Amino acid sequence: MQKSTVAGAVLAFALPLFAATAATAGPVERACNRSDSASANRAVCACIQQVADMTLKGSDQRRAAKLMNDPDKAHEVWLSKRDADDAFWERYKAFGAAAQSYCAG
């Protein structure tokens, strides 16, 4: 009896979050959908956006989206000596690892 009450409460809380996510694609999802990657599809891109929502703030999401389709820019950030770029790169790597783990089929 308790399990169904807890499950119902979780569903009541989570359902609006998933509905809102489905209604509007975030910057990472849009970049993913525009990518040339053979493994990119709507479901995978939506999953990656969900991970981005859990791990990156909005400005980091927008920056990550720019890097997704610009390997030269990503390389530039990776090589940068700026503390802010280093901090972002660590967050970006953590996001990438989480997305790979969470969204891998």
List the helices and strands and how they pair.
Blueprint: H1 2-23, H2 27-34, H3 42-55, H4 58-68, H5 71-79, H6 83-103
Could you explain the architecture of this structure?
This protein is mainly α and 105 residues long. It has helices spanning 2-23, 27-34, 42-55, 58-68, 71-79, 83-103. It has one domain (2-103). The protein is built from 6 helices and no strands.
Keywords, separated by commas or semicolons:
mainly alpha; 0% strand
Concise overview:
By secondary structure, this protein is an all-alpha fold. 81% of the residues lie in helices and 0% in strands.
Question: Into which percent range does the helicity of residues fall?
Answer: over 70%
Order of helices and strands: HHHHHH
Domain count: the total is 1
- What is the rounded Rg? 16 Å
Please indicate the percent range of residues in DSSP E strands (runs of 2 or more): under 5%
Largest sheet: none
Number of helices: 6
Compute the separation of the termini in Å: 33 Å
Shape: globular
Q: Structural class per helix/strand content?
A: mainly alpha
**Strand elements, count:** 0
The residue ranges in which pLDDT falls below 50 over 5 or more consecutive positions are: 3-12
Mean pLDDT: 83
